[in-house]
Every structure is written in structure tokens, then in C-alpha cells.
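Meet my pick.
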Amino acid sequence: MTSAPHIAVLDDEVDITLLLANYLQGHGYRVTQIHDGAALRSLMAADPADLVLLDLGLPGEDGFSIARHVRENWRCGLVIVTGRGDPVDKVVGLEVGADDYVTKPFDLRELAARVKAVLRRLTPDASAAAAAPTPPERLRFAGWRLDTAARSLSNAQGEAVALTTGEFDLLCAFARHPGRVLSRDFLLEQTRGREAAPFDRTIDVQVGRLRKKIEANADDPQLIKSVRGAGYILVPPVTHG
């Protein structure tokens, strides 16, 4: 990632993209304004963005399909910014791989903070790393191998399993605290740098997606178990190396 992270703002409303571009440029970001999915695909092929701000209500193409395409083809941050406030839409957005979901109308300062948090998770701040260095970890549990330096997960056969940024950060939080019940607030702080809002299902959705990738049977999870009224726990022991 360059010294000026590149953000693509995709919205069919020109005034919205202009508002976001002006505000984010004032915070040191390089911003490209685009207005349809085809333009986004062309941009990502020629000058990939570090993070995409995506509206769902686009004419001619479903925003969820664009989000899925971005997640499947590029390793970048993805924040959905939309007028759809229905909890079902938020769940679907997170399930297709969005790192965060912001509803309109939004506070520009909050949106900028969420953008910064997603970018920070993608590329840890060098000054913070120098002040408090965290050595790379290779964590093993139940046949899985988690490499924090390479940000990779592989199974017992050595086959890599693709994780989104949010899924990887969530699994790291579990693997660093095995055998402990972790609250939703704690997990949200560890993975997204913010506290949970009332009825926030972000962590529940992420856990559900993670279970589908690491559990033998996601409907009967044995690795990440729910603790009613308290949160979640990674059951198997974790070893280093």
C-alpha cells in the first residue's frame, strides 16, 4: 500500500461521490470516483484500490454481486455505504465479504474512522509496530495452521483456505485466547476497532462464515462454540510453531 492509500468511491449519485472524495482527500487519501460496476472493474484492473466504498442501490447491477466480485478477485478493504438499513441487507453484505456496513445518512467523521480501521487491519501501522513489535506467530489447532505474518490459513493437508480480512482477524482473536469465552464487544474491538451497537450482528455473521470454512459441520460446531449470553469460545488447544 502506498503512502497515500487509494480509495474507490462507487455510487450512482455524483453529489455523494464528490462529497466523500473531497472529505477523504482532506484526510490524505487518493480517491477515485466511479458510478457503476463496469467502471470499478476497469479501475481495479488498471489501478487497484486499497479500499472500495460501495453503494448497493446501483442501476443495472446488484450491489451485492459487485461486492462478491470484489471479494473474490482482489485483496482490498470493502465498506458498503448504502441507504438500505434493513438488518437482512446488513447480514447479506457481511456474508458476501464486506469489512463494514454503513447506512445513509452517515456522519463523515465516523465513516472516515471506519475506513481508517479497515486499512489499518490490512496494513498495520509501521510506527505502531516499531513501538510495540509483535513477533510473527504460527498457531496450530485441530489440524489447522494460522500464519499471522503471511495472513494465511491452511488445513492439515497444507491446502490454503481463503479468508476475508474480517474472518482472518476474528480467527486470530480466537487463536490468541483459546479456552476463553470472548464477548461480542471484545471481538468487535479486536477485529473492527469499535464497540458493538445494540442489536449489532456483525460478529455473529462473521462467526457463521468462519465456521463454514473450518468446521467439519458448521451446523454442529465443535471448534468455535457459542456460550449463551456471553459470546464465543475456541475449544481446542492452540500450540505455537
In short: Confidence is low (pLDDT under 50) at residues 125-133. The domain at 138-240 is CATH 1.10.10.10 (Arc Repressor Mutant, subunit A). The CA atoms of residues 141 and 217 lie 17 Å apart. The radius of gyration is 18 Å.
